[in-house]
Amino acid sequence: MKLGRSKSPDRQPIVLPAVSDSVVLNVGGGRIPARVLESGADSLLVAITVPTKPLTDAQLDGLVLEYSSARGRVRLGGHFTMAAPPDPDLVRIDSPRSVEVLQEREYVRIKSARPVLVYASRDNSQIQSFTVDVSGGGLLLAGPDTLQIGEQVTFRLTLTPGVAPISGTGKVVRTDRQGHRAIVFDSISDLDRRRLVRFIFECQRAERQRGLNKEDHVG
């Protein structure tokens, strides 16, 4: 059964996008890509990443900032101002508030093969495996078949060679006919979860771009 997109009010603390995260400014039905330069407790500074004219007061009054989080697609309102007039590239958002969260499921999942070191709790043995797919809430591992349902594990997931891995703990919750092991996270830092979610959305964006390029080539 396919679940439709739901809109939910924000009853949880707002998790603002982090520095360098990609966001979108929605103004009058148009969408302007931007990137976060500063992220504070109650303010954001974003840089528009395409050539544009300075936003008018009316446009600033109706502005909504959108970004992707582990909870879904978040839309923020707040007090929007030009941070350095007449520079059209910098926009400051003070007192951000959640307008809505658009969410189809708790975490987006993508197919991706990435190396993982797994440490089994029963003997702390080190196991080298790789992911079949990843999400902000867990991993599907190619193996090994020695991991049992209910077993606690520690993992170190490498997203990019030469960059610090994502680490945490999890539990094996199921297996499938191919011998894959599904791991649900028990403990992972907020920073690592944001890194993982950002990686997932970057992979999705690259996949969409490849599709567009393929259509252009065929056309």
Write a structural description.
The protein is α+β, with helices and mostly antiparallel strands and 219 residues long. It folds into 2 domains: 6-103, Pnp Oxidase, Chain A (Roll); 109-194, Thrombin, subunit H (Beta Barrel). Helix content is 16%, strand content 47%. It has helices at 57-61, 190-218; strands at 6-8, 22-27, 30-39, 43-48, 64-69, 72-82, 90-103, 109-111, 115-120, 126-135, 138-141, 152-157, 166-175, 181-188. The strands form 2 sheets. It has a 6-stranded antiparallel beta barrel. The model is unreliable at 1-11 (pLDDT under 50).
| Count of DSSP-assigned helices | 2
Helix content: 10-25%
**Lateral strand order in the biggest sheet:** 2-3-4-7-6-5
Q: Separation of termini? A: 35 Å
Radius of gyration: 20 Å
What structural class do the secondary elements suggest? alpha+beta
| Domain unit count | 2
- Specify the overall morphology: elongated
Give the overall average pLDDT: 82
Which CATH architecture of the largest domain would you pick? Roll
List the SSEs and their pairings.
Elements: E1 6-8, E2 22-27, E3 30-39, E4 43-48, H1 57-61, E5 64-69, E6 72-82, E7 90-103, E8 109-111, E9 115-120, E10 126-135, E11 138-141, E12 152-157, E13 166-175, E14 181-188, H2 190-218
Keywords:
219 residues; single chain; six-stranded antiparallel beta barrel; 2 domains; elongated; Pnp Oxidase, Chain A; Thrombin, subunit H
